Predict the 3D structure of the following.
Amino acid sequence: MRIQPRQELLEIWTATVRSSWQDGKWQWGGRDGPNSISDAEQLLCILLPATQASFGLDRPDETAEEMIRALRPLGTATQIPRVIIQVLTEYYQRYTDKSGTPVFSGRTYFQTDGEEPSEQQLDLDIVDSFAMSITLSLAAIGFAKVFRSAVRREEILREIDDLETMASVRLTAAMVGLLRSFAVNVFDADSDEGQALIRTLNQGDLPQRQVVSQLRRRLRQTIASFREVMIGSGQVADLDSPNRLFECGWSWGVVRDAPEVETTEPIGHQVSGIAPEEPYLYFTVIAIDAIEELFTERTRILGLLNEEQQRLSRALQLRWDLTRGYWATVATFGDGHRWPLEDIPWRTTDRDASDYYTLLVTSLAVKGLVMERGADAELSRVGAVLEELANRARITRRPFDVDPALALHAPGVRLTLQNSDKLGGPRLRWAVTEFSALLLQRTALIAGLLSDADQRAKLLDLADRVWDHLVLRRLERGNGRSLWDQPARAFRQFDEYHDSPSWYYTERVVQSLVTTARILRRPPVPSERLTLHAQDLLNEAEHLYDMELLTGAAEGGPRMQQTLQVVRVNLRRARDIVHERPGTAAALTSAVLRQLDELSAARRDVAEAG
């Protein structure tokens, strides 16, 4: 790949500190102003890479010199982690109210069509904040736990204790928020929602009754599992009727009439919900990705969840399983026909259509295919959808002078937050502009899942082209230079330029680079053709080596014995790695064949001279 994730992440660290650390103090708020989400995204631009083994900052004696240089304004290798602890503590204090309840409001991220929102609306909790808080809190708790082992001073240990306590409370509150935001929308097949869903699914032009019957049959395990959903929201209406359909996922906030979740953790007041019990694709994907963080190897090994959080995580995992299974089934519905996912753009049950929704559904479809051990052919079909989306979004194609596709990048897709006007004031909207960054992340992720080397290379090439587009969109001036997002640099149709970074967009790019780095750290995918070729070479080389031994070469002079020793070692090494690294095995064997041929030629020359 042309992308060099390590170098790019170090550059982002440098730019983040330059933009955020001024006069010995952390400056909150980027282009959109401070809020519980943006400030978490700002911190994650540093902490997301820091949770990776090769970027660790929590063991000062093991911190690489290039990482210290990137974060130099924060201090030395021993000072940097303490500054991070202090800044994290400040974040948790900023977003905890006087009663000790964590704050999950969207505030400056909320948009309207012109009228000013009320203060009550600005204080509304939103799923984006729950999800981002889970990611940040797990990163913060893990960072603190590892850094603790390198600390002896009581003062710093107290700071670490305080941070862990606050992060743990916010983590629990965020998990409860996600439980109460889970939504199951049940409707008749003949309703507007049902007809919209059937039109999306019916790629084979089948009778409606047959589509409904097939879908319910494929979802029968999911339907049966809904009876286990006992806490939070998502209480399921009657699904036993053969003419009932549903969709599940996460609404934009705590669902209307969602019951409080009983917990022994001191999370404070649980707010009343007003969000409709209807899932939004964007918030569903955000929640799904955050919930996965609860079950990573790092979370398990470091013991980041206490007993109560483990109980809540099991309830979230059930919802994760149900949602993943539902959307994977819907996205790939049909027998031998085009998948609904491949019928771009995706249409939601409220009859809204966008290429961005297709990109979100690819994420959910891939999670389902991975759990069901989907073949390369299926993953490659999703990869083809991503390539088509890159073309349609004018990332890998030149746009028209007037091109509606550019709206995906600016102003982005604007989601209407239904019921947000119930508190007085205008209906709120939520803008998402992450299309290119999300496309890079999904492309790199699928490439890492493929075992076919050619298909993998094709997707990695697409990832490189998406990255070339993202590089164009970096800020050029101000303290935020080298951060994101400046779409006017990639598309001349835009004329608005920014000096301040968007932490929303920059954090998504960091996520993509971390995913790419994780993929590149994996061993190369072996090619079946290359493996067969390497084995043929190895068989010939081993046979020729045995022939040399039969001629008595092993009793030759020191130079001959040394050559045969090298040949033997290389043959053993090639045989050991032929299935994991067939290219390397072939190269080793080719060198052996040359050495054996030189021995044979030398012996022939001696015989002819005699």
